[in-house]
Design goal:
Order of helices and strands: HEEEEEEEEEEHEEEEEEE
CATH architecture of the largest domain: Beta Barrel
Strand order of the largest sheet: 10-11-12-13-14-15-16-17
Number of helices: 2
Distance between the termini: 114 Å
Radius of gyration: 34 Å
Largest sheet: 8 strands, antiparallel, barrel
């Protein structure tokens, strides 16, 4: 009996020791610490008219120091270097926790394609994510303005109008060449009559320095083809000298002006068909 008891006690001791060793071999499972990541810029693009920059972030972002508020222009530094265009001001649009922000640029002068735009947070606390982790102050992103040629809004009034337009009683001509290769012309007579023409266009740089070529396909109110030349002059308000004639249906005595012959080479019309436009941000 004593041997049985000793045997049972020995077995119990073995089980206890085995359990102790087993427990000592098991490691406590500890979750790794969360990875802290700062929000970053991931993408940047610019519209075909050099007016709107779209910025992408690695995650939804907010204005730093406030709860669930969108970013504003005060949170970013936007600068322009190189080329000859000048950044006058900008406006930023953003929705809280969105991954995109939109910067409307207001520039003066003629962009050559050599202008670099740099976007950065103003401070290391200006932009935060949902966990209030800030974007680093050293974060930057860049994009270049483009040489957009005739793209934009233009207006001609008074003495800038061609002699032909003034003789027909017009007091202003507004043109909007869009980045999608469409255009709209609005002309107004002294009597208040508005004429609207729409269509598509193609522009190219001439081999003659200072001249560019434009071809237009008018779609409304009637179909027609037009061809001509233009020249851009850099200044605070960009100036364009412009001369175009209808080529189809052809008008007797009219020939398209060419860069080689310069302005005033529209056949019988001569310099009476040349007019000056100023770039404007106001759509009429």
């Amino acid at each position: 009996m004593k041997r049985v008891t000793h045997y049972l006690l020995l077995l119990l001791l073995i089980f206890v020791l085995a359990g102790a060793f087993s427990c000592s071999d098991e490691k406590e499972i500890v979750d790794p610490p969360p990875v802290v990541t700062n929000p970053k810029f991931t993408s940047i693009s610019i519209s075909g008219d050099n007016k709107v920059i779209t910025i992408g972030f690695s995650e939804g972002v907010f204005k730093g120091g406030l709860v669930n508020q969108p970013l504003s222009g005060a949170d970013f530094s936007v600068s322009l270097t190189g080329g000859q265009a000048v950044l006058d001001s900008f406006r930023l649009n953003h929705i809280a926790n969105d991954t995109l922000a939109y910067i409307r640029l207001f520039t003066s002068g003629l962009a050559t394609g050599e202008e670099q735009i740099t976007v950065a947070p103003v401070t290391g606390t200006s932009v935060v994510n949902s966990a209030a982790i800030p974007m680093k102050a050293s974060e930057k992103i860049y994009i270049m303005l483009a040489d957009i040629g005739i793209i934009g809004e233009w207006i001609s009034t008074g003495a800038n109008l061609s002699v032909i337009f003034r003789n027909f009683g017009f007091d202003s001509v507004y043109m909007h060449y869009k980045a999608d290769d469409t255009f709209i012309f609005k002309s107004h007579t002294i009597g208040g009559i508005e004429n609207v023409v729409t269509g598509t266009y193609q522009q190219s740089v001439s081999s003659v320095p200072g001249f560019r070529i434009i071809n237009l396909e008018q779609l409304t109110p009637v179909s027609a083809s037009n061809q001509g030349i233009f020249s851009l002059e850099n200044s605070a308000v960009v100036k364009m000298t412009y001369e175009v004639v209808q080529t189809s249906p052809q008008v007797n005595g009219l020939t398209p002006p060419t860069p080689e012959l310069g302005f005033g080479s529209s056949g019988l019309l001569g310099s009476d068909n040349t007019q000056v436009f100023l770039r404007t941000d106001t759509e009429l």
